[in-house]
Design goal:
Blueprint (H helix, E strand, L loop, with lengths): L3 E5 L4 H14 L8 H5 L3 H10 L1 E6 L4 E8 L8 E9 L8 H15 L4 E7 L3 H9 L3 E8 L7 E8 L1
């Protein structure tokens, strides 16, 4: 499956909303947010969500099949880009879509001056853990509880670019 990855902005808030709600409905265990919480977002909330991060969407020529965001700034260690909200629709998993999304964030982050990507993987998300390790991310040994479930840990991974 050939996918194309594009960066999106606030005008594309409905695209990101639809993908995020699909992700939270399909794979809730993997995220710190909840479907109920994001379903209640207003248009203004979505605009702010898209304004804070660099968002990328993958499509397979017929539909959008993945999403990821990157964050550089005061909430992230200097020289780092935090990767959040990575999700690939089940039919597109294993097709290279995930690599395309990470490559887009990596290029954007490098162009913005970052030298590392950092992300977190929730307990039980073995497929994501294996994917990130396969493409070069390494565990840092740090973890923290998920916002939505303080009993579930998210483990930090780092990729030096």
């Amino acid at each position: 499956m050939d996918t194309t990855v594009r960066q999106v902005g606030t005008d594309d808030w409905q695209v990101v909303r639809d993908l995020r709600l699909q992700a939270l409905g399909c794979d809730a265990y993997a995220f710190g947010s909840t479907l109920q919480g994001e379903e209640s977002f207003s248009r203004r909330d979505w605009h702010e969500f898209l304004r804070r991060f660099a968002w990328f969407v993958a499509d397979d020529g017929t539909q959008d099949v993945g999403v990821v965001a990157g964050l550089i700034g005061e909430d992230v260690a200097p020289g780092s880009c935090e990767v959040i909200s990575m999700w690939v629709a089940p039919p597109a998993r294993g097709s290279g879509t995930g690599e395309g999304l990470i490559d887009a964030v990596r290029k954007w982050a490098r162009d913005a001056g970052a030298s590392t990507l950092v992300l977190r993987v929730a307990d039980g998300n073995e497929r994501a853990r294996r994917f990130y390790e396969r493409i070069g991310f390494v565990p840092t040994g740090r973890s923290s509880p998920l916002r939505r479930d303080q009993t579930t840990c998210a483990h930090e991974y780092l990729l030096t670019m």
